[in-house]
């Protein structure tokens, strides 16, 4: 009887031992799976980062090349294509730019595999072809220090960070948030060439500034204009800078010039503007003198003065 009563206790003990062993085995399997997962993650990360910032061109750092849909040739980027296919050494009818949104074929720079569709990771070697990737623009860039972002209003990628810029739908481009409530709105302000170097501003990679009149220009071109003492907008001739100090200085210089003695006693009525009348003999043209001699008539001072006034108004 005593042996029979002890059997359930032994059975329970055996069950506990087997359960503990099974639990330890499961924990061991989980640990091994986690270790394998960590190894896989490390390998995946290493694979993705392979060749980072080691490939590209003078325009962008990227680990891929693009096949131009227009001429079926391979280039590092669209700027490389445009420099090669749209310069003065190319026959006029053959010049063209690469349509960025139409790119459909990309070649990995590490393994040389041409992708079946545009993507960020190579389908063959698993390398990340660009840390920044825009599927709309087919744009790759490993250098993310420029804070690239895609603007739906512009339809292209910009740099500088989305939080630092806003899209003006009147001007048709992105401006700094500092100009949001202060810039003059000019329709299509960026959709034209720079008035100095004639590069298309909307897609330019150079810094662009907005002049007080609302027209846009490259920052370097504006600085070059200033070096050549050109202070007016090349498009509308409005002052680019505050010229009030310059005009004040000119007024002071004019005021310092002594008045000729012949005008010392001259006075100007409040309702009339005084226009000094030069000597009639010096003022008359040969035609006027010939007409007065042939007809015996003389031209009155009032008529001469009216002609001078008309000249001043129309010149």
From TrEMBL:
Gene3D superfamilies named in the record: Zinc/RING finger domain, C3HC4 (zinc finger)
Per the UniProt entry, what is one GO biological process? Answer: ubiquitin-dependent protein catabolic process
Q: Polar residues: which segments have biased composition?
A: 290-315
An annotated GO cellular component: nucleus
> What sequence ranges are listed for the domain CHY-type?
50-127
What GO molecular function annotations does the UniProt record carry, in alphabetical order? ubiquitin protein ligase activity; zinc ion binding
Task: Return the annotated region ranges for Disordered.
Answer: 271-315
Which positions fall inside the RING-type domain?
194-237
Positions of the CTCHY-type domain: 129-193
Q: Which InterPro entries match?
A: Znf_CHY, Znf_CHY_sf, Znf_CTCHY, Znf_CTCHY_sf, Znf_RING, Znf_RING/FYVE/PHD
Against SUPFAM superfamilies, the record matches this protein to: CHY zinc finger-like, RING/U-box, Zinc hairpin stack
PANTHER family under this entry? RING FINGER AND CHY ZINC FINGER DOMAIN-CONTAINING PROTEIN 1
Name under which the protein is recorded:
Uncharacterized protein
């Amino acid at each position: 009887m005593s042996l029979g009563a002890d059997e359930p206790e032994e059975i329970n003990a055996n069950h506990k031992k087997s359960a503990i062993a099974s639990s330890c085995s499961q924990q061991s399997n989980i640990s091994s799976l986690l270790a394998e997962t960590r190894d896989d993650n490390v390998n995946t990360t290493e694979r993705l980062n392979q060749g980072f910032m080691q490939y590209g061109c003078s325009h962008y750092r990227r680990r891929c090349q693009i096949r131009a849909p227009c001429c079926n040739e391979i280039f590092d980027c669209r700027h490389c294509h445009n420099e090669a296919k749209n310069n003065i050494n190319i026959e006029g009818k053959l010049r063209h730019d690469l349509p960025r949104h139409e790119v459909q074929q990309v070649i990995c720079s590490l393994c040389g595999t041409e992708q079946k569709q545009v993507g960020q990771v190579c389908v063959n070697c698993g390398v990340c072809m660009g840390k920044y990737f825009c599927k709309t623009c087919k744009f790759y860039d490993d250098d993310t220090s420029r804070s690239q972002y895609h603007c739906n209003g512009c339809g292209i990628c910009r740099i500088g960070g989305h939080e630092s810029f806003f899209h003006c739908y009147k001007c048709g481009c992105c401006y700094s948030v500092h100009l949001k409530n202060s810039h003059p709105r000019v329709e299509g302000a960026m959709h034209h060439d720079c008035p100095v170097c004639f590069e298309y501003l909307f897609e330019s990679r150079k810094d662009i500034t907005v002049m007080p009149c609302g027209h846009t220009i490259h920052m370097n071109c504006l600085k070059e204009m200033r070096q050549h003492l050109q202070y007016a907008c090349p498009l509308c001739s409005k002052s680019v800078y505050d010229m009030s100090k310059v005009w004040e200085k000119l007024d002071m210089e004019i005021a310092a010039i002594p008045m000729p003695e012949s005008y010392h006693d001259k006075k100007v009525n409040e309702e009339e503007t005084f226009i000094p009348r030069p000597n009639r003999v010096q003022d008359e043209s040969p035609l006027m003198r010939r007409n007065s001699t042939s007809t015996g008539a003389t031209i009155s001072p009032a008529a001469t003065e009216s002609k001078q006034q008309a000249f001043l108004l129309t010149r």
